[in-house]
Specification:
Blueprint: E1 16-21, E2 25-31, E3 40-47, H1 54-57, H2 62-81, E4 86-91, H3 93-97, H4 101-112, E5 117-118, H5 121-135, E6 141-146, E7 151-157, E8 160-167, H6 171-180, H7 182-194, E9 206-210, H8 212-225, E10 235-238, H9 239-250, H10 254-260, H11 265-285, E11 289-292, H12 297-305, H13 308-311, H14 315-326, H15 334-341, H16 350-361, H17 374-383, H18 392-405, H19 416-421, H20 424-444, H21 448-451, E12 455-459, E13 462-468, H22 477-490, E14 493-499
Parallel strand pairs: 1-4, 4-5, 6-9, 9-11, 13-14
Antiparallel strand pairs: 1-2, 2-3, 6-7, 7-8, 10-11, 12-13
Length: 500
């Protein structure tokens, strides 16, 4: 069996895993490794309801315990079969607060061979916040993680953790209050949140929403607004629109909610309570935006184990590096390609330069697809790629640039989501980048040695392509045409100069 202790603070040589024993569900996630952009290679959740009735009885639900023990035994077998090198098993609010929580942890050790780490509220809050930072390194505002049995709130200031609080606001627990009286539920939530005046420090910044119930609200909002992308991570809604939607769903029946979007039935049961809690937080914190994130406690466990040198890496660039290395045609040097294109994009924001580098790193990702479908496949794959540290317009930028590199047309067809997600300026910038990448691959064929000897220059509105005489035979009709396309997109004049 693999080690059951928390993972070492060095990169694991092989898969690493986290088992999260929550108040409503237990989940096993196995990641490809513990580098800066670990990719989930297995993710399974079982709704056991350990915390059902906890508010009334003070004990874990008997049937939930039986279900959890059976499924944890299965998880232990899967972990062994997958050769997971390091596994961290954590339990949160229900096990922490139940009278028989320690007894349950001992049963897990005895029956499944798993050592359970029962997190106190402060540690659960810290790990959840670290999970947010692992996917949004400069997060600024307030994080809330709504689990089945508790709510963790953590102030964030440009990637640093601030004040925190754990409240007994899990939907499973609050449903018991709601069943007695909806008025009593609202008063209970309002009273406890009013005891946290520091929540207002998030005013004008962002609120980062973590947890399955809040992600279900995000899915409903996407369906309600016909949003063009079904990626929860970094889905962003203004506070005003979020509050209007929360008011709307508060008045809808369960059947009406089911018609809006596809949400698991067990999530629908807790949705009104989750919406009430979110609504009350937004009223007090008054953030500019509500940002949903797929990262949380489990990712925080991995981030907590990373050496500082690994943490400091950009997770988007790290993921692009890994993806580019999976199936290369040639050793395309994305960074050299990015440097070659720099004269075209001297005046740009750091975030745009970062997205440009990502596109360069992934610019040859569809080389082995059918030629008629390369552009479309590249666009859809990059738009939906399971990466973090990039918002939805940023995804669209990278996807549209690489789509253009493969001769995709600028408008319509599969690229329609980009036109809904991006500004006109962003679309033009992605189009120019794609044409520049197309030119670079036409000159070099993807082989980096040729590109090193050719220079792209810009002087005002004048573009020049400098080619040494020894490579003059490489400049044929295709290269000339693609250079002309780039010049036209840049709105200037251009010249190919062949010389020494």
């Amino acid at each position: 069996m693999p080690s059951r202790s928390p993972p070492a603070r060095t990169a694991a040589q092989g898969p690493v895993g986290v088992i999260d024993i929550g108040s409503n569900s237990i989940r096993l996630v196995v990641f490809s490794g513990s580098g800066r952009a670990p990719h989930p290679i297995f993710n399974e959740k079982v709704l056991c309801g350990l915390g059902r009735g906890l508010e009334r009885t003070g004990r874990l639900h008997e049937e939930g315990v039986e279900s959890a023990l059976a499924n944890l035994g299965r998880f232990a077998g899967l972990v062994e079969a997958m050769n997971v090198h390091h596994l961290r098993v954590v339990a949160t609010a229900a096990v922490r607060e139940a009278e028989n929580g320690p007894e349950f942890a001992r049963a897990v050790r005895r029956q499944a061979g798993l050592k359970v780490e029962i997190l106190d509220g402060a540690e659960e809050a810290r790990l959840s916040a670290l999970g947010v930072l692992s996917g949004m390194p400069q997060a600024d505002g307030l994080m809330g993680d709504l689990g089945g049995g508790s709510l963790e709130l953590v102030a964030l200031r440009q990637g640093k953790l601030g004040r925190h609080e754990t409240l007994p606001f899990g939907p499973l627990r609050l449903r018991e209050v709601a069943e007695r009286s909806k008025g009593e539920l609202r008063n209970h939530v309002e009273r406890r949140l009013d005891e946290l005046p520091w929540l207002s420090s998030a005013k004008g910044r962002d609120f980062y929403a973590v947890g399955g119930a809040w992600r279900a609200i995000a899915r409903l909002h996407m369906a309600h607004t016909n949003y063009p992308l079904r990626v929860i991570h970094h889905y962003t809604v203004s506070r005003g629109r979020a509050q209007d939607f929360l008011d709307l769903i508060a008045g809808l029946s369960r059947d009406s909610l089911e018609r809006i979007g596809r949400v698991p039935r067990k999530r629908l049961e807790v949705l009104p309570v989750a919406a009430l809690v979110l609504q009350q937080i937004l009223e007090r914190a008054r953030p500019a935006q509500l940002v949903f994130t797929a990262m949380g406690l489990r990712e925080g466990c991995l981030y907590d184990a990373m050496p500082q040198a690994v943490r400091s890496l950009d997770p988007l660039i790290a993921a692009a590096d890994e993806a580019a290395a999976l199936n290369p045609r040639f050793v395309v040097d994305g960074r050299a390609l990015h440097a070659w294109l720099q004269p075209l994009f001297r005046k740009s924001e750091p975030e745009t330069a970062r997205l440009r580098l990502t596109a360069c790193l992934l610019s040859d990702m569809a080389w082995n697809e059918h030629p008629d479908y390369r552009a479309e496949i590249a666009f859809l794959r990059l738009l939906r790629m399971p990466v973090v540290a990039v918002d939805h317009p940023g995804r669209a930028f990278v996807a549209l640039a690489v789509h253009t590199r493969y001769a995709g047309t600028a408008e319509g067809g599969p690229t329609a989501p980009a036109w809904q997600l991006m500004s006109e300026g962003g679309i033009r910038e992605a189009w120019r980048l794609g044409l520049a990448l197309r030119l670079a691959f036409a000159i070099s064929g993807g082989a980096p040695s040729i590109l090193k000897r050719v220079r792209l220059e810009r002087d005002g509105d004048q573009l020049r392509l400098r080619v040494p005489r020894s490579l003059s035979t490489m400049i044929g009709e295709v290269v000339e045409r693609r250079f002309e396309d780039l010049v036209e997109a840049c709105g200037g004049k251009g010249k190919i100069k062949i010389g020494r």
